[in-house]
Amino acid sequence: MKALVLGGGGREHALVRALSLDPGITDLHSAPGNPGISELAENHVINVTDGLAVTELAARIRAELVVIGPEAPLVSGVADALRDRGIPVFGPDRDAARLEGSKAFAKEVMEAAGVPTARARVCRNAGQVAEALDAFGPPYVVKDDGLAAGKGVVVTEDRAAAELHARECGGRVVVEEFLDGPEVSLFVLSDGKHALPLLPAQDFKRAHDGDLGPNTGGMGAYAPVPSAPPGLTDEVMGSVVRPTLVEMNRRGARYQGLLYVGLALTSKGPRVVEFNARFGDPETQVILDRLSTPVGAVLQATDTAGLGAIGSLNWKPGAAVTVVVAAENYPGAPVKGDLVHGLHAANALEGAYVLHAGTSWAPDGGVKSNGGRVLNVVGTGADLRQARDRAYEAASRIELRGSFHRTDIAERAAAELQD
Ligand code: AMP
Ligand code: GLY
Question: What is the spatial distance between Cα 321 and Cα 220, in angstroms, rounded to a whole number?
Fold first, then answer.
């Protein structure tokens, strides 16, 4: 099977890596890709939100599977364009991707489907925002209605900061009740009818150790999640995933691709914090590491034969941890263009490897930073402790001026193993 992966971050590097390990994949392409991806796939420079450009490339290379990594091409209708041309695609159509593209729409669907989530109000002006903040009380949760690369949400005790964020969002905002409890990401593959859950993973959203600092796209992740209650996946498939797929079908927006269910495990049970219409980043980096079923045919089946024929997925024993190496000043305006050193040394460590998230080629053939999240260092092992040690040992071999990473990814989960 010839496959094309759209995107150029750590998630896409993980997808390309998983596809490269699939014996059924004969030819691997990416657009735009990145220096790490180029070791495994042929990179093409196109605008990946342009349905025509993507379709032309996919047709030219005779792609039998196009995997859409980021949300922007989904929301701009790239999956629709590919389906119109009969090219199998992993990712929802534009109408279905609104589950991520509009938080107000996602809330409406959840309400109609009876999905457990935070109470919320869609606000159109400062008066409505103030009323909603009064109604729910602190901590305040204010979300930009539209796409904001994981940075549109502010959770704060500070009323003035909550109001300021609402003003800065400009348009519609969603104000909601604070959900208290650890977060778990559950990703589900869907053909619109059948759904297949992946391994739950834990993401670390805040920029700094101890869950301090601003929200980011994610600073690290691990899988599996030993603290996830047994039966969590089955419960969420029943209370969240199936009702949502039914409701989307009822609205004529069949959901095919990956449904990202962000959950808070509250004292009253799991509640949906957010839906995304794509693989999460960096959770995908650890989840795909653990998947032993070849991934190509599974992703393709969401758009062709259906997942009914796939049965269940197989997972490797052990664990994976990824640590994000971020550029100075991330998640603000990150410093770019500095040389990255130590990639070979980090990759040489047993059970560890480095995925490129925000890099580009330096003129001398080296690699330089080109984004907020620059690298994802993955460690694997027999358990979370070993995976974590390896990830941090490899991360210590990376040199990038001004960069930082959290030092507490999977720390608690690994410590609990010993108790
Ligand atoms: P979202 O973009 O909706 O995923 O939100 C980003 C992050 O903000 C989530 O992963 C949570 O850490 C936090 N968050 C969002 N909504 C809530 C909520 N209702 N209660 C507590 N934290 C939230
Ligand atoms: N890691 C969070 C996200 O992908 O949205």
Answer: 7
Q: How confident is the model at residue 153 (pLDDT cuts 50, 70, 90)?
A: confident
Question: Hey, whose CA ends up nearest to atom 4 of ligand 1?
Answer: 274
pLDDT of residue 418: 67
> Are residues 330 and 303 both part of a single domain?
no
Whose Cα sits closest to atom 3 in ligand 2? 280
Place 145 in a pLDDT band, splitting at 50, 70 and 90: confident
Candidates 71, 75, 100, 203: which one to mutate for ligand 2, based on the most atoms within 8 Å of Cβ? 203
Cα distances (angstroms) measured from residue 163 to each of 143, 154, 204, 309: 11, 10, 25, 50
- The structure tokens 């080109």 sit at 370
Q: Which residue, chain included where needed, has tokens 């989530």?
A: 117
174 touches ligand 1 (CB under 6 Å): no
Q: What is the DSSP string of 322-337?
A: EEEEE-TTTTSS----
The answer as to whether 100 is a domain residue is no
Query: Structural domain of residue 50, as residue ranges?
Result: 2-90
DSSP H or E segment with residue 226: none
Does the CB atom of residue 262 touch ligand 1 within 6 A? Answer: yes
- The amino acid occupying position 257 is G
Q: Do 163 and 231 sit in the same domain of this protein?
A: no
Please check whether residue 400 lies inside any domain of the structure. yes
- Rounded to the nearest whole angstrom, what is the distance from the C-alpha of residue 280 to the centroid of ligand 2? 4
Q: List, for residues 164-188, the tens digit of each pLDDT value.
A: 999 988 788 999 999 999 999 999 9
CA of 262 to the centre of ligand 2 (A): 9
Q: Flag whether 205 is in a domain.
A: yes
CB 206 less than 6 A from any atom of ligand 1:
no
Of 248, 297, 300, the residue nearest 82 (C-alpha): 300
Output the domain CATH number for residue 359.
Answer: 3.90.600.10
* 16-66 pLDDT tens trace: 999 999 999 999 999 999 999 999 999 999 999 999 999 999 999 999 999
Q: What is the pLDDT of residues 323-366, one digit of tens each?
A: 999 999 999 999 999 999 999 999 999 999 999 999 999 998 89
Atom number of ligand 2 nearest to Cα 276: 5
For residue 150, which atom of ligand 2 is closest to its CA? 5
Query: Could you tell me if 325 and 298 lie in one domain?
Result: no
The predicted structure's pLDDT at residue 165? 93
**143 pocket-lining for ligand 1 (C-beta < 6 Å):** yes
User: Which CATH number goes with the domain that contains 52?
Assistant: 3.40.50.20
Predicted local distance difference test score (pLDDT) of residue 146: 77
Residue 314 inside a domain? The answer is no
